[in-house]
Design a protein that fits this description.
Blueprint lengths: L8 E2 L6 H4 L4 E2 L3 E6 L5 H16 L3 E5 L4 H7 L14 E5 L15 H14 L3 E5 L1 H5 L5 H18 L2 E7 H4 L5 H9 L2 E10 L2 E11 L9 E6 L2 E4 L15 E2 L4 H6 L4 E2 L3 E6 L5 H15 L3 E6 L3 H9 L6 H6 L2 E6 L6 H15 L3 E5 L10 H17 L3 E7 L20 E10 L2 E11 L9 E6 L2 E6 L1 E3 L2 E3 L1 H79 L6
Parallel strand pairs: 3-7, 3-8, 4-5, 4-6, 6-7, 14-18, 14-19, 15-16, 15-17, 17-18
Antiparallel strand pairs: 1-2, 8-9, 9-10, 10-11, 12-13, 19-20, 20-21, 21-22, 23-24
C-alpha cells in the first residue's frame, strides 16, 4: 500500500505496520502507543528499537518506568538475544520508583532527561522509548504539573532529534480527571492504539493508527498477533487487485472430475469444496495434494482439529498415498487445533510455512474451522486475506468448508467465501431406501466450461470414482436402487436381445426354406425347358424324316420335283 508523505520515517521492522504507515514511525518526532494492559505496548516499543539496531545500525535507549529492565529482557522471548546485547547498541535504563520511595516534595523529570541526553550523546543513540510513562505521571497529582512534564519530554525529544516512542495505558489516558494524560495524544505526531478483546473465548488483538501528522496512512483497524518472532500486523494488501493470471491447468487428482472441469483447476486459482461431515471433502483435498506432489509442486496441507498422521492413514484406505511425499519433503502437513489460536495467528503460521516451503499448492482442511478461533467476522477477514495472498503469489488454493446443515440441497459456506472462490464444488448426501449415497456438483468454475450434472461419488480401495446418476421416471437413483434398476434394465435388454435373435433365426430359416423352394422351382423349370427342347428336336427330326421319305417316293414314281 502506497502512502504519500513528506515525513522522513524510521522503519519499525514490524511486519505489516510499516506497510500501513508507509514506512514506519516519524523520524526525529514523538510517537505514542496507547492501549490497555496486555495489548503489547512494550513489545511494540522494544521490537522497534531492536529492529532499528539490527537492520539500520541505529543505537537505542529503552527507559522502563514500570517493570525492571532485567524482567523486560527476560520476557522478550522472541529470539532477539537481548541478554547478550551490546550496551552501546541498546541500553536499558530503570527509571521506576521503588514502592518504598517516600515523596517529600515536588519532583520533575529534568534530571532523568539530562542523564539520558548524556548517555544518548555518548552512544550515538538515534531512537528512544519511554515505556509506561503514565506510571510516573500518576505520581503527580497536579494536572498542570503533569502537562508541564509531558511538554518537557516532548521538547526534549524535539531538540535531541531522537525518534521517540512513548507508551501509556489507555485507561489512564481516558481518565477525565487527568488533563495531562488526556493531553498526551494531542502533542504526539503519531498515535497508535492497541486493543484486545475476547470473542468465543479467544483473545483477538487489533491495531489502529489514530493520527499521523504529515503523512497518509491506513485508517482502518487491522488485526495483529504476538508470535514467536514478536509482533506482526496483518498485511492488508494493495487496494488494487493486480496479479498474474495463468492458463495452465492442474489436476484435481480425480480423472473424472478433471473431465467435468474440462481439464482441472486453473493454476493460481482458489477452490472451495463444501459439504456436510462425511461427504469426502478431505478425500478430495487429499487427492489434490497427492496429484500436486506427483507433479513436483511443493504443497502445504493444513488440517484443523485432526492430526496429519491420522489423515495420511485414513486416505491410504482409498488409495491416496501421501506418506512418500511427506518423506520426500515435497508435501508438508501441519495439524492445528482451531481454538488454540486466533484466526490471525493461524494465518501468520500458514504464511510463514508458505514462505519457508516455497509453496505452489495449498490445502486448508477445513477453512470453516477458524470460525472457532475468534468468531465469524475475524475468520472471514482471515479467509479473504488468505485467498488474496494466494492469488498474488500464484498459489493454487483448495479449501474445504464444513456445512452444519443436514439438508443436502443447502449450498452455502459459513464464511461466505464461495463468492470469492473461483471454483465451487458442493458435496451432498442422497438418502434412498435406507442408504446414504454421496453426490457431487460443480456449482461454478470461473473461466471454463464445466459439467452441470449431478454425479454419484463412490469410494473404494481403488480411490474415487464419479459415476453418472441414473434418472428413472423423473427420480435420480443412486446406490442399491441404481444397481437394481440397472440390473432390471440389463435383464430387459437381454430379453429383447434374445427375442430379436429368435426372430432373426426364424427369418434366416424362412429365407433358407424360400431359397430351397426357389432352387426346386428352378430345377423344375430347367427340366421343362429341357423336355421342351427335346420335344422340339423330336418334332424337327420327324419333319426331316417325313421330307426325306416323300422325296424317296417321288423318285420311285418318277414324279417331278416340287417347285
Amino acid at each position: 500500500m502506497e502512502h504519500t508523505s513528506g515525513v522522513d520515517k524510521a522503519p519499525t521492522g514490524i511486519g505489516g505496520f510499516d506497510q500501513i504507515t508507509g514506512g514506519g514511525l516519524p523520524r526525529g518526532r514523538t510517537s505514542l502507543v496507547i492501549g490497555a494492559a496486555g495489548t503489547g505496548k512494550t513489545v511494540f516499543a522494544l521490537q522497534s528499537l531492536v529492529n532499528g539496531v539490527r537492520h539500520h545500525g541505529e543505537p537505542a535507549i529503552f527507559v522502563a518506568f514500570e517493570e525492571p529492565s532485567a524482567q523486560i529482557v527476560e520476557n522478550a522471548t522472541f529470539g532477539w538475544n537481548l541478554e547478550h546485547r551490546n550496551h552501546d547498541q541498546i541500553f536499558f535504563l530503570d527509571a521506576r520508583l521503588s514502592p518504598d520511595t517516600v515523596r517529600t516534595g515536588a519532583f520533575d523529570l529534568a534530571g532523568l532527561l539530562a542523564t539520558l541526553e548524556e548517555k544518548a550523546e555518548r552512544m550515538g543513540a538515534q531512537r528512544i522509548a519511554f515505556d509506561s510513562l503514565d506510571v510516573i505521571l500518576r505520581l503527580m497529582d497536579d494536572p498542570a504539573r503533569q502537562r508541564q512534564e509531558v511538554y518537557r519530554i516532548h521538547d526534549w525529544l524535539s531538540n535531541s532529534d531522537l525518534t521517540g516512542l512513548v507508551t501509556a495505558r489507555l485507561e489512564e489516558l481516558g481518565n477525565s480527571d487527568s488533563l495531562a494524560r488526556g493531553f498526551l495524544p494531542f502533542i504526539a505526531d503519531c498515535v497508535v492504539e492497541l486493543s484486545q478483546r475476547i470473542e468465543d473465548r479467544v483473545a483477538l488483538r487489533s491495531l489502529r493508527v489514530v493520527k499521523y501528522r504529515g503523512s497518509s496512512f491506513a485508517e482502518n483497524e487491522v488485526p495483529f498477533v504476538i508470535g514467536p518472532s514478536g509482533m506482526e500486523v496483518a498485511r492488508v494488501g494493495p487496494p488494487e487487485l493486480d496479479y498474474e493470471v495463468s492458463e495452465e491447468r492442474v489436476s484435481t487428482g480425480v480423472p473424472s472430475l478433471d473431465e467435468m472441469l474440462r481439464g482441472g483447476y486453473f493454476r493460481g486459482t482458489s477452490t472451495v469444496i463444501t459439504g456436510a461431515s462425511g461427504t469426502t471433502k478431505t478425500t478430495l483435498a487429499g487427492a489434490f495434494a497427492e496429484a500436486a506432489a506427483d507433479r513436483g509442486d511443493n504443497t502445504l496441507y493444513v488440517c484443523f482439529d485432526e492430526a496429519a498422521e491420522e489423515i495420511v492413514r485414513n486416505l491410504r484406505s482409498v488409495g491416496i498415498e501421501l506418506e512418500p511425499h511427506v518423506g520426500s519433503g515435497v508435501l508438508r502437513m501441519i495439524g492445528a487445533r482451531a481454538e488454540a489460536r486466533s484466526a490471525d495467528e493461524h494465518l501468520l503460521r500458514i504464511r510463514a510455512a508458505i514462505a519457508e516451503h516455497d509453496v505452489r499448492c495449498l490445502v486448508i482442511d477445513p477453512l470453516s474451522a477458524i470460525t472457532k478461533a475468534g468468531g465469524t467476522v475475524s475468520a472471514l477477514s482471515v479467509a479473504r486475506r488468505l485467498i488474496y495472498q494466494a492469488k498474488r503469489r500464484g498459489i493454487t488454493l483448495l479449501c474445504t468448508s464444513l456445512l452444519p446443515e443436514q439438508d443436502p440441497d443447502v449450498e452455502a459456506t459459513p464464511l461466505g467465501i464461495s463468492t470469492l472462490a473461483d471454483t465451487w464444488i458442493h458435496l451432498s448426501y442422497s438418502p434412498q431406501q435406507g442408504e446414504r449415497n454421496r453426490a457431487l456438483t460443480i456449482v461454478k468454475a470461473r473461466g471454463t466450461g464445466h459439467s452441470n450434472q449431478v454425479r454419484e461419488l463412490v469410494l473404494s480401495s481403488e480411490g474415487l470414482q464419479l459415476r453418472d446418476v441414473y434418472a428413472a421416471g423423473g427420480e435420480v437413483l443412486m446406490g442399491t436402487l441404481r444397481w437394481e434398476k440397472e440390473k432390471e434394465m440389463e435383464a430387459e435388454q437381454a430379453r429383447v436381445r434374445a427375442e430379436i435373435e429368435r426372430r432373426r433365426q426364424a427369418l434366416r430359416l424362412a429365407e433358407a426354406e424360400a431359397e430351397a423352394r426357389s432352387r426346386a422351382v428352378q430345377r423344375e423349370i430347367e427340366a421343362h425347358r429341357l423336355e421342351l427342347e427335346a420335344l422340339e428336336q423330336e418334332e424337327e427330326a420327324r419333319e426331316t424324316a417325313w421330307r426325306r421319305r416323300r422325296q424317296g417316293i417321288r423318285r420311285e414314281r418318277g414324279a417331278d420335283e416340287p417347285e
